[in-house]
Design brief:
With about 325 residues, the chain is of the alpha/beta class. The protein has 5 helices and 17 strands. It is elongated, with a radius of gyration of 28 Å. It comes from Candidatus Thiomargarita nelsonii.
């Protein structure tokens, strides 16, 4: 009985060794692939699954797909980390499931009609084009699923001056933001407007990042930023701001860039979560000296400024912090 068990055990071990050799010889890719290869394969699997479940939503025509291919439009589906150029032979019934569409750097004057067929878009990049506010209001109002929108580097607004005495910036953005109340990131930099030109942004309750740099902002009151409870990043650099009242800002701000303006005295309000503050390239900055606790900056970890320490700032700090000069 013992001899039989030993023989049986030896046979089993031999079979296992043979099977292990075969498995290792035939399936090295499956078990020895680098992590990034496995990830890529997972994305491929997702694409295959996507192809299988494409439904009968409004499809793009072959002509529209050819246009996208010719202009090298990039798209990404759920699970893909980067957008890639659209393939000419892509299944038309799957396109509407794209979550990211890149139409940047195309010198577009109008947005294509087929844009509204992308009913599941989460991110849209239309930067570096020649778009107008009227065009945006016509097309973007139907993309209610958007979470990230980049409109930067479009000449939305133009300034006209008379004898260098009085200037006017036109036009004003038509009502659009109420249809995009799911936005979390909005880039309006390099579009040329003052606060009143951009319309009522107060509908964007979920916004946590707002870029308004390189514009003609002379005030921010129209934005009603103090109503944006989730806003943590605000870039107002390279504008025409001469004064700013911190009470106009979102109380939850963590990063605030006010560099390259014409700021002098800053009326203060508590910003308990503010970690980074950039004041470089302004006039001589001063803070309200008389207001101390609770009007402090307890979380401030980095501040950038030119020259001497801004007057009144030291009373806003309750601990040492690295200063960038």
């Amino acid at each position: 009985m013992q001899c039989f068990q030993k023989s049986q055990l030896m046979s089993s071990i031999a079979l296992l060794m043979i099977w292990g050799t075969i498995a290792h010889a035939q399936l090295p890719e499956q078990f020895n692939r680098p992590k990034w290869v496995k990830t890529a394969l997972q994305f491929t699997d997702q694409k295959l699954i996507l192809e299988d479940r494409c439904d009968g939503a409004e499809q793009l025509s072959r002509q529209e797909i050819d246009t996208m291919y010719r202009y090298k439009v990039k798209i990404a589906f759920k699970g893909e980390r980067q957008a890639s150029q659209i393939s000419r032979d892509i299944n038309p019934s799957c396109l509407h499931q794209a979550v990211f569409l890149d139409l940047s750097h195309l010198d577009l004057v109008y947005l294509p009609d087929w844009l509204t067929k992308f009913t599941q878009l989460r991110k849209l990049d239309i930067s570096y084009n020649q778009l107008s506010p009227a065009v945006l209001s016509t097309s973007l109002g139907k993309l209610s699923t958007l979470e990230v929108l980049d409109v930067s580097h479009n000449p939305l607004f133009k300034e006209t001056c008379w004898m260098s005495v009085w200037c006017s910036i036109k036009p004003t953005m038509p009502a659009i933001w109420q249809h995009l109340n799911g936005l979390r990131v909005l880039n309006l930099s390099h579009t040329g407007g003052d606060a009143e030109n951009y319309g009522d942004l107060s509908h964007l309750k979920k916004l946590y990042q707002l870029d308004l740099n390189h514009n003609r902002l002379s005030n921010i009151a129209e934005f009603k930023l103090n109503k944006f409870n989730k806003l943590v990043f605000l870039d107002l650099s390279h504008n025409r701001l001469e004064e700013i009242d911190f009470v106009q800002l979102s109380p939850g701000l963590q990063i605030l860039d006010l560099s390259h303006n014409e700021l002098g005295h800053l009326t203060f309000a508590p910003l308990a979560d503010l970690f980074h503050l950039n004041l470089k390239a302004n006039r001589q900055i001063t803070f309200d000296i008389e207001f101390e606790d609770p009007f402090t900056l307890p979380a401030l970890g980095n501040i950038e400024f030119d020259g001497a320490l801004p007057e009144g700032l030291i009373k806003k700090l309750d601990s040492w912090l690295p200063l960038v000069i």
